[in-house]
């Protein structure tokens, strides 16, 4: 038996590991299963390149709880380790890796958000275990099994052990304050959260299913009554993951229904179908795969619970993709998988990272391209979806200039009577007859069709187009358009008399006498708050509306912008 000190220079790493990221203790399981997966994939590689003695077979990883013994087992059938390799990889490399990681990040504590998602590795086991045993046998012929134990002090033991099968078993003796990790429901929850799409099957317990070889027979008794014998059951491994999730496949191999069923796999509690998907797939200058879905978005900018999930080689990392995906796209759903996103760094570092920036602009471009092709391929369908997707598009136009430029081709401006124009189409339609006295193009719109109905009617009677713009951020977008497009202005139909908005010259005769007008004006001015509205007694064309009350565009926009949180 060998005894030794892992590293005399740092005696205090274990208490530190225990304390580290106290809210994130659960990641130990992901780390150990990642190691088991790596070890299995390495074996697969060796088998593929024809390394003689290796038989790959159908390896799996098993997680087993021993509640009475207060132990958690993680067992793989991967390459295993020889005694020398344990000495090297566990005692030296893994240990100094963990030490270095802690050194770097212990100060940062839990501020991080993303810090701690990766890096601590094997030694994260000591966040929950008071003692760890590692029993392993290398795939190499003629090697012996070894057992390594460590009780959370820098001392370890290493000795030969009887082990016949290749691979590694990690046994965690769960500490008193971590007994939640002996609960089946807790472990199942963690496996589902972190390992749902890992590439090697993970077994957790067994389950009863119908025996596929048994077809129950139906017999007739002497009275002619039919009875069917009971279906035989059989016990099979309970595999908790899908090792081949849709995003790892080629778009050409997937149909629309595959994307939809993957959506349900990702969000089992989500019953609404997505509107459409975007399959991401790039291998230069960075690696990234994924599928994004546009969910139905009903007007509100609310924070959703089903978010985009970030994976690294099929290992779940986080569902907080802030800083990686442009903000306006965080409203989408789906997965992004990339080995090129540095994960054990702080968010501010992440935002400055060159690769991450490239990834963000790639995703933005793909989303814009997809929207454009949907628009080109089936405009009618696109128009139908507009109400559900406009919030993302308008938000994107406001926050990303590149997206703004691309969106010009497919962003739609609906009218109160149900037509949909692109900006160019709208421009061509109104350029000759909707200008004000300074020659500025006036884009009329209503934000609430019911409330502004009579104004809308008056404008339509003159042959003007009235848009229906009602999303919560539209006033920011109008400002952006006014500053980007030349010589245009938006005016809500009730901002002033429509004749004042479009051109000033024709005057109207009121149906009221001068006296009646003065009287009415005094009453109205008392009743209506002057800081909000302007009372104008101007003649309208219809008998139903003898005068109009207007709210100046600037007053209203100021109020709206305050309500939606300022500039865009
Ligand atoms: P990393 O996985 O980043 O290399 P870890 O601390 O998680 O760091 O693991 C250190 C090393 O220990 C691994 O690189 C691997 O060589 C070895 N190792 C850990 N777990 C296993 C395992 N289940 N089977 C084989 N080797 C393992
Ligand atoms: Mg690891």
Automatic annotation (TrEMBL):
Belongs to the heat shock protein 90 family. GO terms for molecular function: ATP binding; ATP hydrolysis activity; ATP-dependent protein folding chaperone; unfolded protein binding. ATP binds at residues 31, 35, 76, 81, 96-97, 168, 347. Residues 205-235 have a biased composition (Basic and acidic residues). It comes from Gelidibacter algens. InterPro entries: HATPase_C_sf, HATPase_dom, Heat_shock_protein_90_CS, HSP90_C, Hsp90_fam, Hsp90_N, Ribosomal_Su5_D2-typ_SF. Pfam families: HATPase_c_3, HSP90. PANTHER family: HEAT SHOCK PROTEIN 90 FAMILY MEMBER. The keyword Chaperone applies. Residues 24-178 form the Histidine kinase/HSP90-like ATPase domain. This is Chaperone protein HtpG. It comes from the Bacteria. Residues 205-240 are annotated as: Disordered. Keywords: ATP-binding, Chaperone, Cytoplasm, Nucleotide-binding, Stress response. The lineage of its organism: Bacteria, Pseudomonadati, Bacteroidota, Flavobacteriia, Flavobacteriales.
